[in-house]
Amino acid sequence: MRQARWGAAAVVAAGSAVLAYGLWPAGHDGGSPGSRTPAGTRAAPASPTPVSGPPRTIPAVTEYTAASGPGWRPAKDARVVVGDDGLADEGRLVARELGMTYAGEKAARDREAGDLRLEVAGDRGANPESYRLTVDGGRVVISGPAEAGVFYGTRTLKQMVTASGGAPEGVVRDEPAEPKRGLMLDIARKFYSAAWIEDRVREIADLKYNELGLHFSDDQGFRVESSSHSEVVTDPHLTKAEVNRIVALARSLHVRIVPEIDSPGHLGAVLAAHPDLQLYKANGRPAAGAIDISKPAAGKLVDELIREYAEVFPGTEWHLGADEYVALLASDPEATYPGLAAAAREKYGPGGTVEDLTTGWLNDRAATVKKLDRTPRAWNDGFFDGGAVAPSQDIQVAYWTGKEIGAREPSEFLERGRKLINYNDEYLYYVLGEPLTFVYPTGQRIYEQWTPFVVRGTTAVPERYDSQILGGSLAVWGDRPNAQTQEQVAAGLRMPLRATSQKLWDRREPSLSWAEFQQLAERLG
């Protein structure tokens, strides 16, 4: 058998027939979560024309071994079968997308021409997001050590069909370089409809992202229904029924929701309903958005909210925020906020500082989250070292800026053994209205300049920290919420999402030029 091997960088935009491809239309109410059919996608008609050339996908597959043979094309009467019922959602989804017939669970020996088979198989100790896609003898088998990997294999096949009408003969072996691949939405300052958020879940799932962050509390709004503290909720907001649908859809598409209730700053909407917890300066003026962390009731309130929403957002991750607490922006925090200074000395001794008290707050909230079996993360400007208390070692660093107080380099966190997620505001921040020095990110800059090692500015950290850099995330912030409609935001994110997907899935230099990558993105829709 004559064989050739392509790596991820060898994907080319060959001039073959293309099927229309896009997001699922909003409002579809049939089938299981995530089962909507992309507008215009149809099964390719039976054809003797072979499918040839390496797979054309975003992100590119990491390894493809070609083989001689005609390849595979989906047909209306061909079956999608699964090795066990745990893959039923994945099977139904890809059957609808490719216009095939879902035939349910079948034994491996039950084979028919044109079958697409999904199965959990292989080394259970392997990367659970890895998969193998084999095209041989007029059939396709997608296997992986866990359901997530099998799902990603169906995303690859879907794009192959879109780009070339089918899948070429051979074997794809694929897995992501980074375990965390995300998009974060600030729905507190700019409200987005549930349908719009669901469309983003589908979009990022097709690009093999696995996280959607929801920053739903800030000075301007608290945007999810609450049963424990309904007084803090702002209109408009998502109902819990809407959130349940988003969560169910995300789970079916192997996207985990990472909720964020930012504290002790950015709590203006909560404090509007709890003015007794507002932090005040020595001159009697309120500190915008800042809760008085010297008051036990402040921690009690935030912990109650965390516990409530841990039930609304089941999962393994939690974002604590912790950025831009205005008490620490003062030139002399102890003089400006004497109440905080007194509480710090009482708790940590004569040398206790407002910074220590703030770190204690972060650790207390992290303890609450960990009791709920969540892994905490916090923005990098909420970490302080050298005081009477240090941030808990197991709080992951969400590194977004080098402009914070003290301007600590990413290497300082990494040298201390901390794990880090890359939110670099130089490349990955989509800030509505482009305030201050922010500019909208472009797919080209991300594709040509950024890697997960470029954590701050344009400078990469040493690759020896590879195991501590867990991945990255684009972040959409609503500083000027009326600067763009939600439709404009979706359009503006389109190419940055695709470029970031490529760079998080495979650290190697892509061989496609930016122009070729754009052409492929247009082909895939």
Automatic annotation (TrEMBL):
Ranges that cross the membrane: none
InterPro entries given in the database record: Beta_hexosaminidase_sua/sub, GH, GH20_Enzymes, Glyco_hydro_20_cat, Hex-like_dom2, HEX_bac_N
Superkingdom: Bacteria
Keyword Hydrolase: yes
Bias (Pro residues): 47-57
Residue ranges of the region described as Disordered: 30-57
Ranges for domain Beta-hexosaminidase bacterial type N-terminal: 55-174
Glycoside hydrolase family 20 catalytic domain: residues covered: 181-482
Keywords: Glycosidase, Hydrolase
Protein family according to the UniProt entry: Belongs to the glycosyl hydrolase 20 family.
Protein name, as recorded: Family 20 glycosylhydrolase
